[in-house]
Automatic annotation (TrEMBL):
<dbReference type="InterPro" id="IPR003439">
    <property type="entry name" value="ABC_transporter-like_ATP-bd"/>
</dbReference>
<dbReference type="Pfam" id="PF00005">
    <property type="entry name" value="ABC_tran"/>
</dbReference>
<keyword id="KW-0813">Transport</keyword>
<comment type="function">
    <text>Part of the ABC transporter complex HmuTUV involved in hemin import. Responsible for energy coupling to the transport system.</text>
</comment>
<dbReference type="GO" id="GO:0005524">
    <property type="term" value="F:ATP binding"/>
</dbReference>
<dbReference type="InterPro" id="IPR003593">
    <property type="entry name" value="AAA+_ATPase"/>
</dbReference>
<protein>
    <submittedName>
        <fullName>ABC transporter ATP-binding protein</fullName>
    </submittedName>
</protein>
<keyword id="KW-0547">Nucleotide-binding</keyword>
<dbReference type="InterPro" id="IPR027417">
    <property type="entry name" value="P-loop_NTPase"/>
</dbReference>
<keyword id="KW-1278">Translocase</keyword>
<dbReference type="InterPro" id="IPR017871">
    <property type="entry name" value="ABC_transporter-like_CS"/>
</dbReference>
<dbReference type="GO" id="GO:0016887">
    <property type="term" value="F:ATP hydrolysis activity"/>
</dbReference>
<feature type="domain" description="ABC transporter">
    <location>
        <begin position="3"/>
        <end position="239"/>
    </location>
</feature>
<keyword id="KW-0067">ATP-binding</keyword>
Length: 256
């Protein structure tokens, strides 16, 4: 189970982004989505979360058509950390993280002990508990990104969708959040689908990779099979040397 995309076509007005892509991303995997700027990575995530609708083709989530889910059901299945998150209203950090619980609350019902516990856990896991009372409008880009990550964790969905979710984070926080996501994949059966620009980070944390190029899937499969110099050349038009790193036990790349 997980996501199945069958012959997906999508255009923005008359700009064709996908003309018939098919993909399988199974439950309980850590899937990386890679590709050059403008190759359609964010568009793909927007299709997976139901924010955009395909013109043709079907997207199935756990075997069920995505357009058959209502927004509340989908929010319980899928939590998104968007590329850019801005709010103009001075909510506190804790209030924003609590927003992750809204899909689980009944209409007009206040958060209960379980909701507060999940919010506290998500803030602790992302290292933001110390500034839970601060206004999100006053945070740095990296601090805000950790707050949105915590909101997605609090949502407690089976699938976590990350759109360059660590782009503003320092290396320590990047490794901490990627390790947290990978641990939940391994131990809790979470599915992670993550757009990433950093090839080495993707090879280190993902189990499978989708490479997009010019609106098509250039390569898709386990990291061992598709993380190669020839795929990187085809997709990014750069020469590279791919090797197995004995210290961190995964493939890595040096761009030449
Ligand atoms: N709302 C929109 N209206 C029209 N064109 C759009 C819209 N959003 C994105 N595009 C175009 O669609 C293409 C794919 O955009 P998308 O954001 O999916 O790419 P991406 O691979 O995520 O890029 P990046 O690596 O730069 O974040 C780009 O050429 C972009 O200019």
């Amino acid at each position: 189970m997980g996501y199945t995309l069958k012959d997906i076509c999508f255009s923005y007005e008359n700009r064709v982004i996908f003309s018939g892509i098919s993909l399988e991303m199974e439950t309980g995997g850590f899937h990386g989505v890679l590709g050059p700027n403008g190759s359609g990575k964010t568009t793909l995530l927007d299709l997976l979360t139901g924010h955009l609708k395909p013109e043709n083709g079907n997207i199935l989530l756990d075997g069920r058509r995505l357009d058959g889910f209502d927004a509340g059901e989908l929010a319980k299945k899928c939590a998104l950390v968007p590329q850019d998150f801005r709010v103009n209203f001075p909510f506190t950090v804790a209030q924003v993280v609590m927003m992750g619980r809204y899909p689980h609350l009944g209409r007009f019902s206040a958060p209960g002990a379980k909701d507060r516990e999940l919010v506290a856990q998500a803030m602790a896991a992302t290292g933001i508990s110390d500034f839970s009372g601060r206004h999100v409008t006053e945070l740095s880009g990296g601090e805000r990104q950790r707050v949105v990550f915590a909101r997605a964790l609090a949502q407690d969905a089976a699938c976590l969708i990350l759109d360059e979710a660590t782009s503003n984070l320092d290396i320590g926080h990047t490794l901490a959040l990627m390790t947290l996501a990978a641990d939940r994949v391994k131990n809790n059966g979470l599915t992670v689908i993550s757009v990433m620009q950093d090839l080495n980070l993707a090879a280190r944390f993902c189990r499978s990779l989708v490479f997009l190029k010019n609106g098509r899937v250039a390569a898709h499969g386990p990291v061992d099979e598709v993380f190669t110099a020839s795929v990187i050349k085809e997709v990014f038009d750069v020469s590279s040397s791919v090797y197995f790193d004995e210290i961190i036990h995964c493939k890595q790349v040096t761009i030449l």
